[in-house]
Structure formats: structure tokens, C-alpha cells
Design goal:
The complex is a heterodimer of chains A (791) and B (78). Chain A has 791 residues and is an alpha/beta fold. Chain A is built from 34 helices and 10 strands. Chain A folds into 4 domains: 161 residues, P-loop containing nucleotide triphosphate hydrolases (Rossmann fold); 95 residues, Helix Hairpins, CATH 1.10.287.1770; 357 residues, no CATH class; 100 residues, no CATH class. Chain B is α+β, with helices and mostly antiparallel strands and 78 residues long. Classes of the chains: A alpha/beta (791), B alpha+beta (78). At the A-B interface, helix 3, helix 11, helix 12, helix 16 and strand 10 of A face helix 1, strand 4 and strand 5 of B.
Chain lengths: 791, 78
């Protein structure tokens, strides 16, 4: 084979979870990663590029795994990538402080035959624990280059890349490594390898010996290949059965047990030669921390404190930036209103696009800080401890310690997203535990529900913000857990599977790592706002605007408006404001006075128009009128009556328009069902829109109320608006928050559930969640009113 | 030397795995994580509700539920 000295090099980055694979990937590619999925499955695939020694290198990040079995999707994806796409080599990231188990995975890649370069990572941690590792000897014994690295400090990365280029240039020869599995198995492996090569199996370039080993391990994915040849397949199967019987009789074990034992035996023989323990550290720093943090009494208290601090951190830091965003979008709306004439285009831009998308983007800071806090928990290693402490509790409800990851990513600390939450359930092996986790994860308070909570809490519970959020979080957990218990007793009966999990040592997260982590998730959120939510906002705006009411209706309001104007012009103010010019001066004067905080007295030498304006301003602020203004009072009161009437007429007209629109009619139809919950047709429109994405609930409420309230109210935030709205009270707000927490998962989540668990479960999830939401809200609403809370 | 189930071991107790009696996927999972016969282990501690258990294996901390620990027999001194 000719030496390859040019062309792109493709490397696959593999390794155990917690071995520092992500750090190395970020160091190699500068975090300019392309994130996608492996074909046909929902396992995330990250890819990046770099140039080293003038060579283009493509880095594909394989999922973090401990082995290459067919038991989990991640492991299957990793080995399929190697076999089907044949990368030039695998860079295996190995945790130096945990050499044996990490080499177990490396060995399996070497058995497939793909060239391997080992990054002996976190060599500094190993040294601090008194472990000295002879990397050169390790490389000689394994027959592959071994490069010591400290990925987070970028140490050894350049040397690693030198080795990568060198190995890639040696050509694409695959040399499967042969490990001895004992005489019984070695004979069978040789036999089955021969049969696989002779028979008509579509194995392509896959090494037959590796397939033979996998077949002996009982690997389902490989066993299916045996069905391809009706002649040789059964021969191989009976050979496997024979040796299995023999091993059971002689060593009381299955072939896969024996194979694993021999792999570890080989690894131990290697590590004994290369690792010297200079001083025996009985307890690592991590262990000492765990003695406190996992203590039976301190542990749970510490856990609750951490979760509470996460909210405090998020709201404390997120508050100000949220205000800036709100101000910016308010300013933008105002600017557009000044530039564009009144009409459907302005309405579309201001009410539909800016109102809808702005409402969602405005909450990005909150979500960013929440993701940042979760990234800290993940990167320090504490999240695994949460799973460890919570497992016994979660198992009571038919879940798994790892379900906590789904629940937290889905919003268990509030501010996640059910989409990655549902996807995180893939770490669960048992299909029933997994399904239960998937079905209850959407009950968590995802980032998209936060804007509504923020608006309603701001309006009705402003003095107990953090406490209220804490309460909502507890309720969502309570609902998720009790639902799961119910499901596991009824539709999803059955036992649970292995919990074997690693508690990674505590690590100080790097700022870069945290920022990348946070950025990736925030970007997903913003992208969603920019695409789905923009489309939905426009669609909902159209639904709320069309069809237009008939001419007659508009004439009724025009008539009313005309009447109010006539009454004002012919009333007590007629003498002071005889013509259009005087009325225009009056309006200008009022506008100037409205900007002034104090005082509003007319001052000496003012003309009658200015004095009238001052009188109105004083009355507006509820001030007593000085005697010299008493004669102006009737005229001023007539103006105020006129102004109130036109706001009412305008509001009535907008409301009538909305009610006449498609959305209004739909909301009206649903009102019969939602009246016991205290939701009117506007809330119903918002909830319908919320199915597209939960953020839309807020933006639609915003649109519905700004459309109905007229220009001046648009400037007030939705919170203030709802607090003043007669149909709203703390009980309505609380009921709505519960309903939004529980009702049908959003469109995106339903699609993911469909992909992960099948469409029947996706449909079930929508129906079940909505029924639950209705039931719970009804109970709360009825009980609340019976207790006299709804006023 | 006596072989006892891992579940009955006390905190800080050390031992050497004698037998892994699981089958199928559980067997693979335990062994993939390094729990093979001959391996030295130490009980680090237990979760607040006494389950799962935190053990030290080959320099790493692993967690096992009690009913999984039942599959593993450990030779301990005394």
C-alpha cells in the first residue's frame, strides 16, 4: 500500500465518560463544532476540524462509553462508526488515574483492528495520587503510541497530533489485536472465524475474528448476521451453544464472562508493569469531600441547599438583563410604530413578530444562567452524586437514579428543556423505566414555562418570587413522581435494571468548558425562538386578526366614538377649546405635563388652554384643585370623561375584533370547558398556541392583551396589565401555572417522544398530560374558590 | 478467608471479588465496569437511605444497588 502523505485525516475520539474527552475535543477543535445526529438515531454527533503540520484533520466525537456491546445505543453507534465509516484512527482518551477500566475500552477498539493512539489524559491527577505511569513501556506492550496529556491545560495536545499524523501516514492497514481467551474459547474463536470467512455472510471489511468474539459474547447485533447464511449460520450457533454448556459445567460462567475476565487479566498484566505506586493514598480528596457531601444527615441538606442556591443565583443575576431586553423590545416597538403607518403591516411587525419573539428572547438571560448553573453541577461531578442519593427515592416511584438527569435537564431545577431531557433518558436500559421517565419529564418546569411563571409571579406574588418558584418546582416533582408510580403500577408494570454507575472524582470546572456547555444549550433555545416561535407568532397573529369583523360592527364603534366627540365639543370645554388648533395645543401641553414629575401648576401668564391642561394633570394625579382653578374643573372633568370613553370604545372594538377572529372563536368554544378553571377565551388562545411551544403562552397573552388594550397599554408590561385585569387574581394565576406545567408537551417534545418511544406513546403523552392538567387545575380552582381565595 | 455477599460488607471493609453470579446484560454491565473475579474492592459508603452502595474499584468509585451487590461474592479476611 502506498504511503499517504496528503489528504484529510479522519479521527474518531473515543473514551469512557469522565475521561476528559470533551475537554480534549474542545482543545482540538477550538469548540467550533458541528452538532448533529448519527444517521437514523438520536445520539448526538459532534464534529470539528483542525489543521496540524499542514494537514486537515476531521475529528468525530464518539459517545462516551465503557464498552462496545450491543446493549446500549451509544455503544452500538460508536462501534458502527468504526466499522462502517472506517476512520483513519481512533484517539482513545484514557484517564490515567483509572487505567484498568479505561484500557478495557481501548482494547476493544484494538481488537476491531482500527489503528489506535492513546491519550493518557489527566496524568497530573494520577501523579498527585502517587501513581507513576511509564507511558513508553505502556505503548510498547500495547503496540500503539501512548501520549501523556492534560487536556484541560492543553498539555501534550501538539505531541498527540504529531502521533496522529504519523500513524495516519503509515497507511490504512488494520491489524486486529489478538487476546488469548483460554484454550476452550481460543479454539472456538478460530473455528467460528473460519466459518464466517467461508460462509456467505455480508460482513464486508469487518474483521471475522472480532465478529466471532462478539458472537460468543451473545451480541444480538452480530447474531443477526448469522441468519444470513442458512447453511453456516446454524453450525456457528450450535458451536457457540456447545462451548457455553461446557463453560457452564467447568467454570460456572458464560462465555461473555470469561471473555471479560481475560481482557481484564491481560490489562492487569500490562498495568502491573507500567504503574508504580510511589505512595499509597488511601483517601483521595474526592473521597474526603464525599464523606461530608454524601453523609446521611448532611448530604440531603446540602442537596436542597444547592438546588435553592441555583434559583437564587439565576434570578439574582438574570433579573437586570431581562429588564434590558424588555426595554430594548419596547423601544423597538415604539420605533416601528413611529415609522410605519397604522395598518396590518405595522400590526404584524409590532404585535406578531416583536411582541411574540421579543417576549421569548427576553428571557434568554434567565435561561442562560440556569444552564450555566446546571453545567457547574455536571462538570464538577455533583450531578452523579445527586443520582446516587436520589436512586432509592426514585426507585420507590418506579424510576432509576439516572432518571434524575432527564428530570433535571428537563427542568427539574427549573429552566431546562424537555427535548434533551427526553433524550437523556437513553442512558436508561430498562424500556419501562425509560418510558416512565420519558412520559413524566415534560412535567418539569422547562425554560419555556419560566417566562409565564415570571410574568404571573411578578403580577400576583411579587413579594415571594423565589419561594413561589421553589413551590412550583416541588409541585412538578411531586406530579412527575406520583404519575410515574401510577404508570409503573398500571401500563408499565415490571422490574428494574442495573444501576452500576461511576461517581467521577470532583473536578474544578474550567470556565471555557462551562461557557461552551451553556452556549450550546442557549443557542438551541434561541434557534427554536427564531424558527418555530417566529412562525407560530405570525400564524397566531393571523389567527387573531382574521377574519375581520363585518363593516356593521366597525360602524357601531365609529358611531359611538363620534358621539363621544360631539358630547365633548359641545360640553363645558367648548369655550376654552373652540377649534382644532386649540385642541392640538391642548394635547401637546398635556403631553408635556405628563412627562413632568412635579409640580404641575400652570404658572403665571398661562393662557386658558394651558390652565385647562394643568387642571387635567392635577386631577389625573388626584391632587386637590386650588381655588383659582375651580372654574376650570367642569371642562377638565368633561375631557377626562371623553378620554375614558374613547379608551373603552377602542378596547371594546379591539376585543370585538379578536373575539370575531378565528382564534377568538376557538377560544370561545373552549371557554365552556375552561370556565370552571377561571380561564377566559384569551387564555385559551394562549394555551392552544402553547402546544406549538410553551413560550408562546406568554407571547400570545401579550399579543391578546396589547391588541385588546390599545396603544397606551402596550407600553405597560404584561405583568402590570394582568395585575390590573378584572378577571385575574392570584388563584387564576396559580391555576394557570399548574395547567401550563402539566398540560400536553410542546410540539417539539411530542416529536422527540415519538422518535424515542413510538407514536402511540407520543399520542398517549399528549392525552394523558392534558387530562391530568385539567383534573389538577379543576381541583385547585374549585377548592380555592370554596376557601374564598378567588377574589 | 470467607466469601460473603457484597451487600453484607461494612463501610471501609476491603475484599477481593470471588464470584460474579449475574447473567446476561447485568453480567456484562458489572464486568464492563471492572467488577471481575480477583479484583480488590473497598466499601466507601452508602447513600443516605443505605442503598445504593459506593465502592472503590481499580481507583474509581462505582455505585451499585443492594440487589445488584447480591450478585457479587467477596472474599474478606476474618
Amino acid at each position: 500500500m502506498k504511503q499517504r502523505t496528503s489528504g484529510e485525516i479522519t479521527i474518531a475520539l473515543a473514551g469512557n465518560p469522565n475521561a476528559g474527552k470533551t475537554s480534549l475535543f474542545n482543545q482540538l477543535t477550538g469548540a467550533r463544532a458541528h452538532v448533529g445526529n448519527y444517521p437514523g438515531v438520536t445520539v448526538e454527533k459532534k464534529e470539528g476540524r483542525l489543521v496540524h503540520q499542514g494537514r486537515d484533520i476531521r475529528v468525530v466525537d464518539l459517545p462516551g462509553t465503557y464498552s462496545l456491546t450491543a446493549y446500549s445505543l451509544e455503544e452500538l453507534v460508536a462501534r458502527r462508526f468504526i466499522i462502517e465509516e472506517r476512520p483513519d484512527l481512533v484517539v482513545e482518551v484514557v484517564d490515567a488515574a483509572n487505567l484498568d477500566r479505561n484500557l478495557y475500552l481501548a482494547l476493544q477498539f484494538m481488537e476491531i483492528g482500527v489503528p489506535v493512539v492513546i491519550a493518557l489524559n489527566m496524568i497530573d491527577v494520577a501523579e498527585s495520587r502517587g501513581l507513576k505511569i511509564d507511558a513508553v513501556l505502556l505503548g510498547e506492550l500495547l503496540g500503539v503510541p501512548v501520549i501523556p496529556t492534560v487536556a484541560r491545560a492543553k498539555k501534550g495536545v501538539s505531541e498527540l497530533l504529531d502521533a496522529v499524523v504519523q500513524v495516519a501516514d503509515q497507511g490504512p492497514a488494520w491489524k486486529p489485536m489478538r487476546i488469548r481467551y483460554g484454550s476452550d474459547l481460543d479454539l472456538r474463536i478460530a473455528e467460528i472465524t473460519g466459518l464466517l470467512e467461508e460462509g456467505r455472510f455480508e460482513i464486508g471489511e469487518t474483521p471475522a475474528r472480532w465478529l466471532a468474539v462478539k458472537a460468543l459474547e451473545g451480541d444480538q447485533d452480530v447474531m443477526r448476521i448469522l441468519d444470513q447464511d442458512p447453511g453456516y449460520g446454524p453450525v456457528i450457533r450450535s458451536s457457540i451453544e456447545e462451548v457455553t454448556r461446557h463453560l457452564r459445567a467447568t467454570v460456572d460462567d458464560e462465555p461473555e464472562g470469561v471473555i471479560a475476565d481475560h481482557r481484564y487479566g491481560f490489562i492487569t498484566s500490562v498495568t502491573k508493569q507500567v504503574v508504580t505506586v510511589s505512595r499509597d493514598i488511601r483517601r483521595t480528596v474526592s473521597d474526603k469531600v464525599d464523606m461530608v457531601v454524601l453523609n446521611r444527615l448532611v448530604g440531603p441538606l446540602f442537596l436542597l441547599t444547592v438546588l435553592y442556591l441555583v434559583y437564587q443565583f439565576t434570578f439574582w443575576l438574570g433579573d437586570a438583563p431581562v429588564g434590558w431586553f424588555e426595554a430594548f423590545f419596547g423601544w423597538l416597538s415604539g420605533a416601528v410604530e413611529n415609522v410605519l403607518p397604522d395598518g396590518p403591516v405595522r400590526s404584524l411587525i409590532v404585535s406578531g413578530i416583536i411582541g411574540g419573539v421579543g417576549g421569548v428572547i427576553g428571557f434568554t438571560p434567565l435561561i442562560a444562567f440556569m444552564f450555566f448553573a446546571i453545567a457547574i453541577l455536571e462538570d464538577t461531578g455533583y450531578l452523579a452524586r445527586i443520582a446516587f442519593m436520589m436512586d432509592r427515592v426514585l426507585r420507590t416511584f418506579g424510576l432509576h437514579g439516572n432518571s434524575v438527569l432527564s428530570l433535571i435537564v428537563g427542568g427539574g431545577i427549573s429552566g431546562g428543556c424537555a427535548v434533551p431531557g427526553v433524550m437523556a433518558a437513553r442512558t436508561l436500559r430498562d424500556p419501562k423505566e425509560r418510558l416512565a421517565t420519558i412520559l413524566v419529564t415534560p412535567f418539569m418546569n422547562c425554560g419555556a414555562k419560566l417566562p409565564l411563571y415570571a410574568v404571573l409571579i411578578g403580577a400576583f406574588f411579587s413579594r415571594q418570587q423565589a419561594l413561589m418558584m421553589f413551590l412550583l418546582t416541588l409541585i412538578s416533582w411531586g406530579m412527575a413522581l406520583s404519575s410515574s408510580r401510577l404508570l409503573r403500577w398500571t401500563l408499565l408494570k415490571g422490574s428494574h435494571t442495573a444501576f452500576v454507575m461511576e461517581l467521577p472524582p470532583y473536578r474544578l470546572p474550567t470556565l471555557k468548558g462551562l461557557l461552551i456547555h451553556t452556549w450550546e444549550r442557549v443557542w438551541q433555545y434561541v434557534k427554536k425562538a427564531g424558527t418555530i416561535i417566529l412562525a407560530v407568532s405570525v400564524l397566531l397573529w393571523a389567527m387573531m386578526t382574521y377574519p375581520s369583523p363585518p363593516e356593521d360592527l366597525a360602524r357601531v364603534f365609529d358611531f359611538q366614538r363620534q358621539q363621544a366627540i360631539e358630547a365633548f365639543r359641545n360640553g363645558p370645554a367648548a369655550g376654552i377649546l373652540p377649534d382644532e388648533k386649540a385642541r392640538a395645543d391642548f394635547r401637546d401641553r398635556l403631553a408635556i405635563l405628563a412627562e413632568r414629575p412635579e409640580p404641575v401648576a400652570a404658572g403665571a401668564g398661562a393662557n386658558r388652554v394651558e390652565v385647562l391642561a394643568a387642571t387635567v394633570a392635577l386631577l389625573d394625579r388626584g391632587r386637590p384643585l386650588p381655588d383659582e382653578l375651580a372654574s376650570y374643573a367642569p371642562a377638565a372633568r368633561a375631557y377626562i370623561a371623553y378620554r375614558d370613553a374613547s379608551v373603552l370604545i377602542g378596547g371594546g372594538e379591539a376585543q370585538a375584533r379578536l373575539k370575531y377572529s378565528l382564534a377568538g372563536r376557538l377560544g370561545g368554544l373552549l371557554e365552556r370547558a375552561t370556565r370552571p378553571l377561571g380561564f377566559d377565551w384569551r387564555t385559551n388562545i394562549a394555551l392552544t398556541g402553547g402546544f406549538a411551544a410553551k413560550e408562546v403562552v406568554v407571547s400570545t397573552l401579550g399579543t391578546a392583551y396589547s391588541l385588546a388594550g390599545g396603544g397606551e397599554v402596550q407600553k405597560a408590561s404584561l405583568s402590570e396589565r394582568l395585575a390590573r385585569e378584572p378577571g385575574w387574581n392570584p388563584l387564576t394565576a396559580f391555576t394557570l401555572m399548574l395547567f401550563v406545567m402539566l398540560y400536553s408537551p410542546c410540539f417539539a417534545t411530542v416529536i422527540i417522544i415519538g422518535r424515542e418511544a413510538g407514536w402511540r406513546w407520543a399520542m398517549f403523552s399528549m392525552a394523558y398530560a392534558t387530562a391530568l392538567a385539567y383534573g389538577v387545575s379543576l381541583i385547585v380552582s374549585v377548592t380555592g374558590r370554596a376557601l374564598g381565595l378567588g377574589t | 478467608m470467607a466469601a460473603i455477599p457484597l451487600r453484607t460488607m461494612k463501610a471501609r471493609q476491603k475484599g477481593r471479588i470471588a464470584k460474579v453470579r449475574a447473567g446476561g446484560e447485568m453480567n456484562r454491565r458489572l464486568r464492563d465496569m471492572g467488577l471481575v473475579p480477583g479484583t480488590e474492592i473497598e466499601i466507601v459508603g452508602r447513600a443516605p437511605l443505605y442503598d445504593p452502595v459506593n465502592i472503590k474499584v481499580r481507583g474509581a468509585n462505582l455505585t451499585l444497588r443492594n440487589n445488584e451487590a447480591d450478585f457479587i461474592e467477596v472474599e474478606v479476611e476474618g
